[in-house]
C-alpha cells in the first residue's frame, strides 16, 4: 500500500512539472471583446504568449498565408502585412501608412506538434492593434478600430 501511495505521489508531481514546463496558458484572450477559442494550447514562455496562428487569424478576421519553401508565415489585413520566419525573432512589417520597418519579438514564430505559433503581442501591435493585459483576471485584450469578422 505504501508503494502504491509513493507511485501516485511521484506520478502527480511529474504531471505537474510537465504542465509547467510546457507553459500552457489558461488565461482568456479576447479580440474586440470576443473570446478567442483555441483548439490547440496557447503557450506562455519568457512572460510572452504565443498562439496558433491560423486559429487566431481566422477568428480575428486577419488573413494568414504559409510559405513552406521559405518557412515564412504571413499575416495581413487591409493596411499591414507582417512577415515572420520560423525561428527568427525579427518580424518584417510592411505598412501602407508607416512604410516598411522591423520589429524584434521576444519569441520567434515556432512549430509545435505541426502547428505554427506566433508571438501574440508583437504581431497584434504590428497589425495596428492595442494589446492590454488585465492582471485582475489574467486576460489579454486585443483592441482594433475594426470589429472582428
Number of strands: 13
Helix content: 10-25%
What order do the strands of the largest sheet run in, or round the barrel if closed?
A: 5-6-7-8-9
Mean pLDDT: 84
Structural class of the helix and strand makeup? alpha+beta
Uncertain parts: 3-23
Secondary-structure element sequence? Answer: HEEEEHEEEEEEEHEE
Shape: globular
How much of the polypeptide forms β-strand, as a percent range?
A: 35-45%
Distance between the termini: 57 Å
Radius of gyration: 18 Å
Largest beta-sheet characterization:
5 strands, antiparallel
Keywords:
149 residues, alpha+beta, 40% strand, 24% helix, five-stranded antiparallel β-sheet, globular
Q: TL;DR of this structure?
A:
The chain has 149 residues and is of the alpha+beta class. It has 3 helices and 13 strands, in the order αββββαβββββββαββ.
Write the topology of this structure.
Elements: H1 2-22, E1 29-31, E2 34-35, E3 43-45, E4 48-52, H2 53-60, E5 63-67, E6 72-76, E7 80-85, E8 90-95, E9 99-104, E10 110-112, E11 115-119, H3 120-126, E12 130-134, E13 139-143
Parallel strand pairs: 1-13
Antiparallel strand pairs: 1-2, 3-4, 4-11, 5-6, 6-7, 7-8, 8-9, 10-11, 12-13
Structure description:
The chain is of the alpha+beta class and 149 residues long. It is 24% helix and 40% strand. The longest helix has 21 residues. The chain is globular. The N and C termini lie far apart (57 Å).
